[in-house]
């Protein structure tokens, strides 16, 4: 089945070098996967319409008192329920359209199950963010139109990511960017009025909330889904392709597991903890299956110890799929898991259990214990195959007795044929699986191979001599593990970094509006010292200096000097800027922090209507400013910060932790000047 169809778009637009689209996104690419995703989006809209009509009919049924009207409404409800069931079955058909996602290489392998991407509606950030910038940060919101447009463009690009590492990086960059946006614009005490709508990947039911957590969780789900599509796309006929498949499914499991542990109360069915647990099991099972294929890729030698290893590896795959099938049939996920997925899990469980018994039968029938053979090693391997030997048999006696080996081997073959027949039967019961030709071919070939070997050894007394063989103990040398998402590998720049360092200028802190302080440095002395990292704070303010008279206060953050933005400047850079004005009048704008909270934590609690407390991760570093200040000692007071006393200033060992400059001596009193009109604004009168 081909993966890429002829493109309907002009060819130049599809080239990454043109810069027409963001890297990792090309909405005009006409592939089988993108067309399938478009069908999913259209089905979501039809399901939404049907659900609204059903809700209206149910409300009418409750309100109507006329018996004839009630009968008509009940009839209409039956039609609506039927249509809704058909739409959901059609959506399930898209979820099992595994052939579209598989590698374009011809492969005689059982298809793997990918996850479809969640669909969403357009979101307009512009009005809300502009209002918040003006209200909370007291800045001209029109200066941030480009940044808001970049954020909206990035979100739009994430709706059509490419099925490769570039697409994953695109989604990861938006997820990290949402952490910045959450800290900048979403205070935990109120809703911002932005409605996020995402459609359930499995049921098509829309979920809408004024909560950024839904957006972040849905992006994480799509990252995991994209990894599954990358895994199914890999060429499973090469060792490198199989290794990429294993890696992709392990990473998908890691993202989904992170989503389950971090966002514990998501309102969507496909992101509920129970459903995510099942999806993580499914990803790990498919990774284990690909590991088994990698072991068998170069061929299986008909050698005793090799067959023991392969039998236990096959038993391991059958075991994980058996556990997956049982998990899929538990409440509450049973109603929302596609029936074809559960059927395929059952088929694979029987198939790989059959392979385990087939390889065990082969090692017993084809290999006889000869003089000089490693008798102890073979005995140990055979004893480790079973939890217990069949009644009346011991490992060493069975190896030495040709009749017992044949009898036990044929019993394993009979068990293998039984499992193969069950896998074929399960596949035939599901309409979706019946239409997957390669699955039917693989199951049929394995079944015929076991039957042929059993037929060659069969005699008339088998029904009386065959024994009930125990299960093969599962064992693997390559246990698959969850690979957690590595957000630090993606470098993301905060779109709104012009607002200032996030440790200070965030949504959960409040300040006074910027105050203009007009002052002069008399005889080279400012009348105050500076401290902290960016942004710099006023420290050790002389109450009689011109800056204090103009309204400056200790602890004020300097945001600009003579219209030069100082939010990201260090102490040395601010001092250099102040020095450049000499004895001239200096206009400095400062803000005062009103909140007592100062540090940003790695997790922040967010509440939403109808949702319990949920924790979301923000990839930000805590503010170490307070700790920095505590560790710094102010040296002997000699003079105010003078530009002629460079030797008294210490050089910072790191730009991340600049020392506080705090040396001063009270000089002669200066004349008190009339304060600036801005200095009359107190903290209490400037709340907003």
TrEMBL record:
Segments for region (Disordered): 1-21
Subcellular location: Cytoplasm
SMART domains: BRO1 (SM01041), Hr1 (SM00742), PDZ (SM00228)
Biological processes, Gene Ontology terms: glomerular filtration; negative regulation of stress fiber assembly; signal transduction
Recorded coiled-coil stretches: 33-97
Annotated InterPro entries: BRO1_dom, BRO1_sf, HR1_rho-bd, HR1_rpt_sf, PDZ, PDZ_sf, Rhophilin-2_HR1, RHPN1_2
Domain BRO1 positions: 111-460
Pfam family, one: BRO1
Subunit structure: Interacts with GTP-bound RhoA and RhoB. Interacts with both GTP- and GDP-bound RhoA. Interacts with KRT18.
Name by which UniProt lists this protein: Rhophilin-2
Name of encoding gene: RHPN2
